[in-house]
Each structure stands twice: as structure tokens, then as C-alpha cells.
Amino acid sequence: MLKIAFDPVYVHPLPTGHRFPMLKYELIPEQLIYEGIVEPKNFFKPQPIEEQYITLAHKPSYWLKLKTLSLSSKEIRRTGFSLTEQLIKRELSIVQGTMEACDFALRNGVAFNVAGGTHHAGSDWGEGFCLLNDQAIGAHYLLQQKKAKKILMIDLDVHQGNGTAEIFENEDNVFTFSMHSQRNFPFRKEQSDLDIGLPDNTKDDEYLELLQEHMFSIINHIKPDFVFYLAGVDVLATDKLGWLSLTKMGCKLRDEVVFEYCKQFGLPIQVSMGGGYSSLIRDIVDAHCNTFKTAIDKLL
Prior knowledge:
Family: Belongs to the histone deacetylase family.
Shape: globular
Largest sheet: 8 strands, parallel
GO molecular function: histone deacetylase activity; hydrolase activity
Pfam family, one: Hist_deacetyl
Domain Histone deacetylase: 22-288
Keywords: Hydrolase
């Protein structure tokens, strides 16, 4: 059975003026159920993650400052949040959701987290509305528990996965692949195993051609046995923070490429939703829901 991590705590901690980007976390499950794509029984509510797993990816000193709300004012500004206990609780729930989704993916082929994709969080920093790196923690969990030997991180958010790249820079068993807007945030990028920096206004055809080319060569070269996919929809032309020009159909075809390769090579995949900041909330929800629909069509 398809399993999807969702917890209402995802949507509550932000001040009213910042709630719009979070609204999608409520609307995605509602839309999927409304369209009959999934049922309520497909969702699970994660509990807060245990500390022992957090420090697989993050330095204990950083986690201590985070959980005691003792980051410096400079560190807090870098996160983009006002640091609160409720916000930390949200992060812990998101990370646990991704970690549990790893086990569901091993059993069922694919599993989702409605939230997650917190790829700007590095080993000892938070940044860009990311405090803990959910997929990096999930990957370390799989390696520690010997549930995977070689992991591929596919990051197709419009922003480079700098935190993920930094966390795994010396880890031979994890290959990090980020395809993103080159001039966009973060302005000081880390080095992934493979970075594809795209020019402004890249459109569907060029994007999909590059993705096909690199997906094939990466999987054939590294032969992963588990995949993490960050499926940000801030690649859409309507996105306020993205500088690419994909259509909703182009975004859906992007997902098809990823899922078809996973099916072809028999690779379990955990999917976190990442960014989406279009002026029209409908564009965000439609594009994210297409990712769920495509995974179900291709993998289940």
C-alpha cells in the first residue's frame, strides 16, 4: 500500500503573513483524496524523530543549539524563521516522516512525505527555511541500518541542494545530483557529486533532454539500490522564487523520467515535496499532486 507522511503540525508554526507557502501541505492531501487518487488510510502521522538519528547527519553541537533554541541571532536570520519550540517540533515530525517513508519504500517501491525536502540544512547550519535535512537523515539511517549500500539523491528543486551536498561530500556510498537554477539561491553553492546549473528561463525541452541524459549515465555508473527524490515544483514558470520556465506538463514529464528509471532498475524511492511558491496556489497543488499521480501510475 502507498504510504504518505502527513502531520497537521506541518502547517501551524508560521506567523500569519507566512502561511501561504504552507497552505499547500493542507491542500495536497485534500486534493488527492477528493480526486480519488488515495484514501485517508494511505496517510500516516509521524512522531518526532529520536535524537540518535538526527546526529547521523548533523553535528551534535548544532542539534544541541537548535533544540535549546540557542542559535545566535546571525544563525537564526540565516534560517529565515523565528526560532520556536513549535517550529522544532514541526521539523522533528517532518524528518521522522521521511525516515519512516524509507522503510515503506523498501516494502512497497515508493513512499512520500507531503512536506520535507529541507535540502539547505547542512551538517551544522540551518538555511532557507530548512533546519534539519530530512532526506540526508533518511539516507544515513538506511546506511547505518544496512538497508541500503549505495544511495542516489536526486534533487530537482529549483535551488541547489547545498546542505545535502555538504553533508555527503566525503561519503562514497551516497551520490548527490542537483539540477537547479544556476544564478538562484543559494548564492554560495556547495559541490554536489554532479551539479547541473541551468540558465534563467530554461524551458521544458532543454530541461527534459538534460535530465534524461544525466539520469541514464548516473544510474548506470553508480548502480544505486535506493533513491531519494526531491520533487520541488518551484521550477514552474509561474513560481515567484524560481527562475526557470517549466510548464505543469513539463514538470509532470520530469517526474515521469525519474519514476520510469526507478521502475526500469527496480529502485525503491522516497519522495519529499520540496519548494513551490507560485502566485496561484492551484498551480502549486496541481503540480505536486501530479507527482503523486505519476508515481502511482509508474510504480504501483
